[in-house]
Amino acid sequence: MQHATLNIRNLIFDLDETLILLPIDWSLVYRELGRLLGREVSSFTNTLSILWGSKLYWEVSRFVEKYELEALNGLIVLDDSPHILRKLWENYELNLTSLQSRRSIESVLNLIGVRELFKVVVSRDERSTRSEQIKLVLFMGGYEASETMMVGDRVNDVLSALENDCRAALLVRRTSELENLRKLGLESKTLILNNLMELYSILNRGRKR
Predict the structure, then answer these.
(1) Three-state DSSP class for 168?
(2) How far apart are CA 205 and CA 207, in angstroms?
């Protein structure tokens, strides 16, 4: 997969668990959402997709936003991401997609000092699924999909990238995500990374060829 990075010009990053970690107690959030919606909730991603376009979507979004903003006090920077992003910014256009709210994203990016590095930022306020978020980044940035790579920590990030004809990189934060990728037979179509420095090293090596 490394040879496929040669013509990459644009990078799209996920935020939580890719660049940073927000210590949110999701089991608590799911219980509270279950009470709010009157049914069991086991996935915020699926819930957003189901509710998109409804008044209840914004009620749920604002409810979860409170937890996101509270978690800022315990935010953890992963892999020295601000430093690596600045190095990547020298040669690539950087963009961001996240299922966090716009307010939460802006707060995180300003807190770690990298807001000015991102050309297009898409939150759940604009689109409710990763695939649609990537599609919007391509449109707003005027990017060719073949020159764009999505970097995330979930198989859904990979699937969403491939649906939009983009390249995909999986940052392995959980071995279960790598196992799921292999079960889907997508390992050969994915750049598999152990950390963000590895991404920089591979992209930098490709540029020198």
Answers:
(1) strand
(2) 5
Answer whether 0.85 is exceeded by the pTM: yes
- In contact, 29 and 67? CB cutoff 8 Å: yes
pLDDT tens column, 24-66: 999 999 999 999 999 999 999 999 999 999 999 999 999 999 9
Compute the radius of gyration of the chain from its Cα atoms.
17
In sequence order, what are the residues at sequence separation of 6 or more whose Cβ sits closer than 8 angstroms to the Cβ of residue 132? none
Beta carbons of 21 and 76 less than 8 angstroms apart: yes
Q: Cβ(19)–Cβ(76) under 8 Å? A: no
**Domains plus CATH for the chain?**
2-21+76-208 (3.40.50.1000), 26-74 (no CATH)
With tokens 């644009």, the residue in question is 10
Beta bridge partners of 129: none
